[in-house]
Amino acid sequence: MLVLACSIMDVQAILVLISQLYGKSFGDSLNKAIEDGNLVSVNSDWRELLPHPDGRVEYEFWTNSNDECGPKCDSQIQFVKNFKGAAQIIEKKGYTQFTPHYITWYCPEAFLLSKQCKSQCINHGRYCAPDPEQDFSKGYDGKDVVLQNLVKSACLKLLMKVGSLGCGGIM
Asked: Vacuolar sorting receptor thioredoxin-like domain: from which residue to which, for each copy (predicted)?
């Protein structure tokens, strides 16, 4: 059983999930209850709906290590802060399996030799991220962001393999 208890701070991300699973009218009624100042708790039993070959809930988180992208990143950072403690508990107890994904794009072939592709990409333009400062003449480059994402991903895989996942899966 998954229990979602949300405050107004978490409602945006959670209502998207709920509305997709239960329908818009149910999501709207939850939204109204929260707007009216009520604490909303939703209990969902998904055991028969989702595959569970090993008894764990599998979840994914799409992000990148460049957290300077405005309101969307601010919201994501707040979600991670709020969810980290719960994620640690459920991961350590073996209830979940977490998989992070880092958002990248590729550089079109026509631009592979450009300054932008060379500073934002690795592996001949296959994996790219934006310049964190949006200034190619100072600070870190997008390729530094991609490399940081690779380091985090490799560390998480190693920690999961040896069974000492101290971060609860949230990076």
From this structure: 57-156
